[in-house]
Amino acid sequence: MSIPADSLTIGAVAKRVGVAIDTIRYYEREGLLPAPLRRASGYRSYGEGTIAQLRFIRRAKQLGFTLEEIRELLALSADRQRGVKAVKQRAQQRLAALEQRIVELQRVRDGLAQLVESCPGHGAPEQCPILRALTDEVPA
């Protein structure tokens, strides 16, 4: 199999996309990227398609998608029949999960803010409301 003249090394791809070389290797092992062609020297050789896929993966991760969800999105992106509808459904599911996580984080923030407000910031450690809240047994 011949290697295209415009093929890129793993270092060049990593630099263009802004990821570590180990990240590219990891995505290959996880099946998010196809196995690259190999030069006669054994070095990996990549084309522009790999750069597009890596950017897709990176942006999907920034939006909170897991690697498994990204694998599904990549597969759906090639599905001409139901791809767009299914991608929208996955995005709606991710959005709902993020909204639930935001509610949980706001609850945690409010509880921590209340502890910080009630702590005088001086005195005996056993009187600190923050330390008491962390060490006291919480009913199940």
Terminal Cα span: 62 Å
The whole-angstrom Rg is: 24 Å
What does the average pLDDT come to?
89
Given helix and strand content, the structural type is: mainly alpha
β-strand percent reads under 5%
List low-confidence stretches: none
GO molecular function: DNA binding
Pfam family, one: MerR_1
Protein name: MerR family DNA-binding protein
Keywords: Coiled coil, DNA-binding, Transcription, Transcription regulation
Provide structural commentary:
Helix 4 runs antiparallel to helix 5. The chain has a two-stranded antiparallel ribbon with strand order 1-2. The protein has 140 residues and is an all-alpha fold. The protein is 61% helix and 3% strand. A hairpin with a 5-residue loop joins strand 1 (37-38) and strand 2 (44-45). The termini are far apart. It has helices spanning 10-17, 21-29, 48-62, 67-77, 83-118, 129-135; strands at 37-38, 44-45. Residues 7-76 form the HTH merR-type domain.
What descriptive keywords fit this protein?
140 residues; mainly alpha; two-stranded antiparallel ribbon; 61% helix; elongated
What's the topology here?
Blueprint: H1 10-17, H2 21-29, E1 37-38, E2 44-45, H3 48-62, H4 67-77, H5 83-118, H6 129-135
Antiparallel strand pairs: 1-2
Helix pairs in contact: 4-5
Provide a brief overview of the structure.
The protein is an all-alpha fold and 140 residues long. It contains six helices and two strands; from the N terminus they run ααββαααα.
